[in-house]
Amino acid sequence: MPSDIKNIPIISYRQFLVKNLVSGWLGYDYDKLNIVGTYNLLYNASILVNEGFSSALCIDGIINTKGTNLCFIPLKPFLKSNVLLAWRKNKPMSRGAKVFLSVLQKQLFKITN
Question: What's the whole-model pTM score?
Fold first, then answer.
């Protein structure tokens, strides 16, 4: 519930759009949360969370929590966000990037069909 996280120390993703999304879910201004830090890479934030520094506001599945002291607790009511992936047209990609894009496209095709 939005009221459950108001006073918990939170590390939040640095992206500005997250503030608007979370504010809508909270029903109050994002700046009223107890934000103690921001991150670009969830792995780095997970180290601080694991040490008991705070909790992290994040998307499920970005890091593997199996076999760790970390757990993902979904927001209720459920908060949904769109994700955008973009790449330069006509720019050569590394082999790894091509494989990643191919796997991603296959998975998205399964979901949409």
Answer: 0.62
Residue 51 φ/ψ, nearest 5 degrees: -85, 0
For residue range 16-42, list pLDDT tens digits in order.
566 667 777 777 777 777 888 888 888
Give the three-class secondary structure for 107: helix
Location of structure tokens 């108001």:
6
Q: How far apart are CA 83 and CA 111, in angstroms?
A: 14
* Domain assignments of the chain as residue spans, ordered by start: 1-82
What CATH code would you report for 1-82? 3.40.190
Contact 26, 50 (CB under 8 A): no
